[in-house]
Task: structure prediction
Amino acid sequence: MKRVHDSQNTSSPQPGKQKIKRSENLCGSIARKLASRYPRRLAGGAMPRILRLLFALALCSLPVLVHAQESRFTVGTASAKPGEKVTGYLDVPAGIDPGTQIPVVVVRGTKPGPTLALVSGAHGTEYASIIAIEKLIHDLDPAQVSGTVILVPLVNLASFEQKVPHVNPVDKKSMNRFYPGKADGTQTERASYLITKEVVDKCDYLIDFHGGDLDESLRPYAYWVVSGNAKQDGVAKEMALAFGLDHIIISADRPKDLSATRYLDNTAAMRGKPAVTVEAGFAGTVETDDVELLERGTLSVMRALKMLPGEARFVEHPVWIQSIADVSSPVTGIFYPLVKRGTFVGEGMELGYVTDYFGKTIFEAHAPAAGVVLHICAVPTMNKGDNIANIGVVAAKAP
Ligand SMILES: [Zn+2]
Result:
């Protein structure tokens, strides 16, 4: 997919000079380096080595926004020169409801390279993912980075501050369903519009961070966003493998209409930028294991993209999920789970049940298909229409 930086589209006050540049010689040498780099033991045999080589070639054939090294790179009010780490805000102006300020950090490497966007907190109580980005803000060293990293740690500030799961309490909308957004919509739509212009349009690759929300017990997994562009999808797949989570959902059914892309990952993918979504953490917790999965995965993707020195660690044999069967409750009452996150369940197996407030069972939830419990409701509160569980149906073969 053709990628063009349209300076008409940016509301940045001081957009850095950008040009689309591709160096065949550099690409050839990267491909050769990568091909020789992966020992058979790590890469899992000769075939994966060939795939890695194809990845290196695909990486090079995708156009990358190369920002003139001396110019500033600006996202919202954060404007960084090479070697700088600068903080600022995406100012969402007031409209039919109040405005807001979304924190943003630009880490500008001393060496040239692509731009990677890391976005978390669309759901402001998926805490592990937010803390992982906060740690990366602290840890990323511009002297080590080739290229630029845009970090948006907390898209949904009101959700975080008010401890409201799933939605932006200002307009009751999920902040990962209204992309590419609207300049004259509600706060969620205006914020989505700004993130599309300031973050998606200015990056080459994007990772969207999520996890189990306050009421979700979730096992870690990634989404590989399949756009239909084979070359781009090959790179996105390698990003998912480099991230290292061992369950990967093949996400091929996102909307293809550019004006209704809904999800952030899909908005990036449909604009020609390889994108993945990653999920870890559950039910309000900030477990070290989950935060480290997200942190280490990000650094590994940066190594795969040659934005950091060192070698990426690719997950060798992930469980590929071909579809998700979701189970919701037709009744309001008290929920009792019978399985845990990550359990493999057979079709028809009971996942849990709902009672009325006197203890009488009024609904039994059964698995509509065999698969992995990606997440299950973590709290007794159950309202009619609420999600009980998502079952990941395992793909017959690896893509
Ligand atoms: Zn989320």
User: Anything to note?
Assistant: Residues 1-47 have pLDDT under 50 and may be disordered. The radius of gyration is 21 Å. The chain has nine helices and 21 strands.
